[in-house]
Amino acid sequence: MAEATADLPIKTETTRDTSDEADGTQALSVRQLDVYYGESQIIRKVDLDLRPGSITALMGRNGVGKTTLLKAIMGLLPARQGEILLSGQSVVKSPTEKRARGGIAYVPQGREIFPKLTIEENIKLGLQAHPQRPKHFSEDEIFGLFPFLATMRNRLGGNLSGGQQQQLALARALVGNPRVLLLDEPTEGIQPSIIDDIERVLTDLRAKGKIAILLVEQYLDFARRLSNRFYIMQRGSMVLSGETQKLTDDEVKRYLAF
Ligand SMILES: Nc1ncnc2c1ncn2[C@@H]1O[C@H](COP(=O)(O)OP(=O)(O)OP(=O)(O)O)[C@@H](O)[C@H]1O
Ligand SMILES: [Mg+2]
Questions:
Q1: Which residue puts its alpha carbon closest to atom 27 of ligand 1?
Q2: 253 by DSSP, 3-state: which?
Q3: Which of 137, 176, 185, 213 could join 141 in a cystine, given CB atoms 3.0 to 4.6 angstroms apart?
């Protein structure tokens, strides 16, 4: 039954939340973005806004284009059309390193840490990537967010559990003091106790109010608890967005249930 409703045409466009479209305070804005793999269009006329101090959930079934959108924001895939604005400045033509230096951090799906380097070395690499940026968090604060990183400083990244690697990847992104943090399915394949730790850290970050977080997440309860706002994608297009507390069970069933 869920399948049948999922295939409804998406012309019933219901982007309801327009409260901050014109106030110019977005940490990141995407406008009318088109992204292709070869000749296949994967992202279609996507608009997205991320506010500082908020967590925005990006949801949608498998293969709708969530990871592709994050890669395009990070500059790992080119935009065919459209605009990407970081604090109002266009970065759509900038290479990835320039976007990283400008304050966009990306923790990819499946995380990517250096397995042959220790925890401490992995974190140092994150620091070196952005030596000149103002600090939101000291190294001590980062270790405070993830206490095991401090006690296991000299452990090789490759010897950590999947959940610990995910936390290390997040810590490494945070020491670069990003303005915008892109997280691709941080709970995927991770044990519940570590999911709780990650939730606590993201709650802390949201309370600090400095970073705009885009959270791609299929674990709906986690995304609902953490996010202020949400976007839902279907076949490369945004089909619904708004305040998370107004997302109805009916909408979840229509757009997200498997
Ligand atoms: N390297 C690639 N070359 C060609 N097509 C690709 C490539 N990577 C992804 N695609 C296609 O692009 C579409 C969107 O994929 P994407 O990985 O962005 O989806 P997703 O929403 O992140 O899915 P998931 O929830 O499974 O992670 C899919 O149809 C996928 O087959
Ligand atoms: Mg993905």
A1: 62
A2: helix
A3: 137
Out of 15-29, 160-174, 188-202, least confident range: 15-29
Strands 89-90 and 14-15: unpaired
Return the residue matching tokens 């079934």. Answer: 61
Nearest to 213 by CA among 43, 42, 49: 49
Residue ranges of domains in the chain: 23-255
From the alpha carbon of 61, which atom of ligand 1 is closest? 25
117 alpha carbon to ligand 1 midpoint, in Å?
A: 30
Give the pLDDT confidence of 142-161 residue by residue, as tens digits: 888 898 999 999 999 999 99
Under DSSP, the state recorded for 90 is: E
pLDDT in tens, 86-140: 999 999 999 999 999 999 999 998 778 999 999 999 988 887 766 566 677 777 8
Using the CB atoms, write b or e for 129-145: b if 16+ within 10 Å. bbeebeebbebeebbeb
Element of type H or E holding 239: strand 237-243
Looking from the CA of residue 69, the nearest atom of ligand 1 is: 18
pLDDT value at position 7? 41
Q: Count H helices, E strands: the chain?
A: 10, 11
- 92 and 83 Cβ atoms separated by less than 8 Å: yes
68 is written with which tokens?
């592709």
Domain 23-255 sits in CATH at: 3.40.50.300
- Is 34 within 8 Å of 236 (Cβ atoms)? no
From the CB of 66, is ligand 1 less than 6 Å away?
yes
Report the alpha-carbon distance of residue 247 to residue 234 in Å, rounded: 16
The model carries a pTM of 0.89
Q: Measure the CA–CA gap between 61 and 234, rounded to whole angstroms.
A: 7
